[in-house]
Design a protein that fits this description.
binds 2,5-anhydro-1,6-di-O-phosphono-D-mannitol; 2 domains; alpha+beta; 8 helices; binds magnesium ion; Fructose-1,6-Bisphosphatase, Chain A, domain 1
Length: 341
Amino acid sequence: MKTKKVTTISQFISEQQMQFPDATGDLSKLFLDIIIAAKIVNRDIRKAGLVDILGTHGSINVQGEEVKKLDVIANEEYIAALSLGGDCCAILSEENEDIIRIKNPGSNKSKYIIAIDPLDGSSNIDVNASIGTIFSIYKRFSDVHDEVTMDDCLQKGENQIAAGYIIYGSSTMLVYSTGNGVNGFTLDSSIGEFCLSHPNIKIPEKGSIYSINEGNYNEFPDGVKNYISYCKENDKSTKRPYSARYIGSLIADFHRNLLRGGIFIYPPTVKSPNGKLRLMYECNPLAFIAEQAGGIASTGNERILEIIPEKLHQRVPLFTGSKEMVEQAIEMYQSNSVQSI
Ligand code: AHM
Ligand code: MG
């Protein structure tokens, strides 16, 4: 049998690092911390149902949402791996109201801040649908010997040094970008390594999938309602009607659209005028990946990566995916000058 050449993520990261002779290797080390945590969380997710980690934890998080046991476990595991690694100085997590400043001797000198949604799509945990982890890495502005400031953490998405996600699906994949394209790695559990499986991912310019929680239709702005009608129309030249696909797990919806072509929309609604998704650890990292893959990410009115964040857990509307589809949706959204929601 001919053996296929395998590139592990560690080999890939060190090859990339060699292209930058001045690189200190600190970012590579931070990636290795993330990879360790991803493997641990993956191990626990794969055991869910056999051990007592399904169901609710009994608490409500800073977002006012019910916390699942696996939310707590994943949060603790990522924080532990990132803190022990000593390669980042602060963590902003969906599950913690404030910034977690890491106070161990190694991380006092670290320049990196990480924003993370440790377990995205938690409502899907108990029904065995795909869930994910989303992360975003920034360089602090302040001196490495000083306390990390709020300004260090509230940076616009354009400043991201790297971003990515792990999808715990039918296989476990890590997809990331350091601003030089997007690459995907699949976990080969027999050797315990993420191996390059999807090099240089490009999102198709056009697609035929639209992903939106249509149950909220009556609460959508008119422009979004019009776009949904457009998706359902018959038109051979644009391959409409499009297919509706919505898992309710952002990573699973985003990942499918990234590979196949499509649009994901979480618009403003009457109840949530800023949408539901969080800027720092959901929209920014996915916007970075989308753009690096040739796609678009917008609030409908502005590019996600240009938003200057005001608060750690800020929510923004999100339109992201294939370039032509997102442009069309934004045009229809904006053409309703009175956004009656
Ligand atoms: P979570 O991070 O608490 O799991 O919430 C975010 C999730 C996203 O994964 C998903 O896109 C969205 O919420 C689904 O929301 P809705 O159920 O309103 O459609
Ligand atoms: Mg989430």
